[in-house]
Amino acid sequence: MRRRSLLQIGGASLTLPAFPFSAQAGPLPAAKPGITNRTVIQKVCAWPNLQLLPDGTLVALIFNQPCHGLWEGDLDCWASEDDGRTWRFRGRPAQHEPTTNRMNCAAGFAKNADLVVLCSGWAERAPVGTLSGPHRRVLRAWVSRSSDGGRSWTVGGSFPAAPQTAAGRDNELIPFGNIRVAADGSLCVACYLRKGDSRECYLVRSTDDGRNWTEVTPLNPNGNETDILHLGGGRWLAASREFRQKRDVHIELFASGDDARGWQRSMPLSLPMQVTGNLTLLSDGRILASYGNRCWNNFGVDVRISDDKGATWSPPIRIADCPRSDCGYPSSVQLADGSVVTAYYTQVSEDFHYEMRVATWNPNQFSVDGRPAG
């Protein structure tokens, strides 16, 4: 029998299952032939950020609690040395302080090959297993750094205050997605502000290899979680979760031609309720966009592929099915053999059963029209 733990809701206690931190013995059913999905870490909401180390190790930065920041928790680093099949805890980039959590992050590599993580979170959080009130006060992001593949971490440096807009006053920037190196050698990351129904997205830059972050420029006035991709020279793309109306939350593609300082709207990259994108430059020059699909009765993870630097895109390709709408936040990396590992999360049941899964697949099996190649 599984152990069970208590969740405190007000004065009441709710019993919920305690799932082990482990991988399942076998793969999940394939969304398409040639695509393997596995449950790899249970009892975590995760929102994984996946990075590929120079030695081929995969690391995933994840929130280590089975909830949407409803109580205290940390940002953990897990590692896989077998291309995503099995995972082990490796280190803790951001250990929360009492009555807070650390969960919203961006990650990438400094020019000296250090792994850099920017991690924000929320104040006024209750102990683990006890529901907190609404999210109100955002914490200033920490700058965490590891020179040993995510095993040990130092927290230092500085992160900028939010622009003093309507959404930025008495608020903090929340980092998201991948940290990328610009043509001028600076490090860049997308951050956003959230206040009420307002969302604002910015590009934040570091000129000292990720230790201190200083320059803040607008990216999407209606966006929040955004991933950026440097195409070379001064060319960039950004996949931004855009809030136009309550019923129209989708991914909007933005482009920059001046090394990520000025951004122009390009096109919608998804339909409404298909949200939170990740951009990956494949070894053959194609661009992979991965995102969560929360459309009714079609829950899962989809991808699109561009072979012309983001001017046009393939139809959506399903790589993972999920049991509930609370799912997605994919993060993809390409391995040396050309296959892609995509990490994502899903809710399995309402009793705080969340888990991280990975899909392993090969983009060469699909042509640009989304059909199987050959």
Main sheet attributes: strand count, strand direction, barrel closure: 8 strands, mixed
Q: Note the run of SSEs as H and E.
A: EEEEEEEEEEEEEEEEEEEEEEEEEE
Q: What helical percentage do the residues reach? A: under 10%
Strand content: over 45%
The counted number of beta strands is 26
| Structural domains: how many | 1
Write down the overall mean pLDDT. 91
What class, by secondary structure content? mainly beta
Can you count the helices? 0
Compute the gyration radius: what is it? 19 Å
Distance between the termini: 48 Å
Tell me the CATH architecture: 6 Propeller
Task: Find the CATH topology.
Answer: Neuraminidase
The top-level CATH class is: Mainly Beta
The low-confidence parts are: 1-25
Question: Globular, elongated, flat, extended or rod-shaped: what is the shape?
Answer: globular
Strand arrangement, major sheet: 11-10-9-8-12-13-14-15
